């Protein structure tokens, strides 16, 4: 992973967010097949550096981010990570700064399906929503009550193996922002800001995608109690039935496309002919000098 000088990721991430669509029931009820269509062009077809770039930070529950408003009578409810703005600010913290508790960065295998211990064991979340892997900040020995006030940024390229119409969904608690972009400069974004219960959100427009790699950027955060961020993708043709994206479909970069073999052979042949021509001309010059 290399997002050199991560605290400056405000310049890296797309800063526009679409309107979040909240679902009261399961994802299968979403009529995405009736949505309008946006076409994205892949950045390439061959990925390099398998895995997901990830950066996670945890802050103290008394940390005051951009959402903190001391004029409110319930201002303490805005301590910690309470919004997308807070999440981005927390992700920019470095060890030793006020409020910083822990941080971890690296390349992970995926899929993108992270949930803390309170979510994984809450009878109101299970078995309906399924469990997730603990965020890299925590281990199985971490007390669930301390798995709070954290945010993660995950980015790179996701592979779409087959051309077609697709939509993406995110399950989040408390919130998130997600952008998918193509090489044609078109991107689609969605977000869920503030403090929310577990909520599914999806793009308001379907995506027409050719097979290949598309750039993504996801920020998820949790303040208290249950925390989850899960990225799903599904066909927008017919019934909306999304699933988590296999870990093997994530890459940190896109490989340069090599020249076709025929072009390479042509290049070598041209160089050979050029060498012959140069050699012939030199021999002619030598003959001319002898004749003189």
Q: Can you offer a commentary on this structure?
A:
A hairpin with a 7-residue loop joins strand 13 (228-235) and strand 14. Helices cover 15% and strands 33% of the residues. Mean pLDDT is 82; it is low at 4-29, 273-278 and 286-292. The protein has helices at 84-91, 117-121, 261-291, and strands at 37-40, 47-50, 52-59, 100-108, 113-115, 150-160, 164-173, 175-181, 187-192, 199-202, 206-209, 212-222, 228-235, 243-244, 250-254. It has two domains: 6-254, Jelly Rolls (Sandwich); 259-292. The N and C termini lie far apart (68 Å). Strands 2, 3, 4, 6, 8, 9, 12 and 15 form an eight-stranded antiparallel beta sheet that branches. Strands 1, 5, 7, 10, 11, 13 and 14 form a seven-stranded mixed beta sheet that branches. The chain has 292 residues and is an alpha+beta fold. It has three helices and 15 strands.
Show unreliable segments.
4-29, 273-278, 286-292
- Under CATH, the topology of the largest domain can be stated as Jelly Rolls
Overall pLDDT metric = 82
Distance between the termini: 68 Å
- What characterizes the major β-sheet? 8 strands, antiparallel
Q: What is the CATH C-level name of the largest domain?
A: Mainly Beta
The Rg value, from CA coordinates, equals 25 Å
Strand content: 25-35%
**Count of structural domains:** 2
The number of helical segments is 3
Oligomer: single chain
- Judged by helices, strands and strand pairing, the structural class is alpha+beta
Coarse morphology: globular
Sketch the topology as an H/E string, one letter per element: EEEHEEHEEEEEEEEEEH
CATH architectural name of the largest domain = Sandwich
> How many beta-strand runs?
15
Helix fraction, binned, reads 10-25%
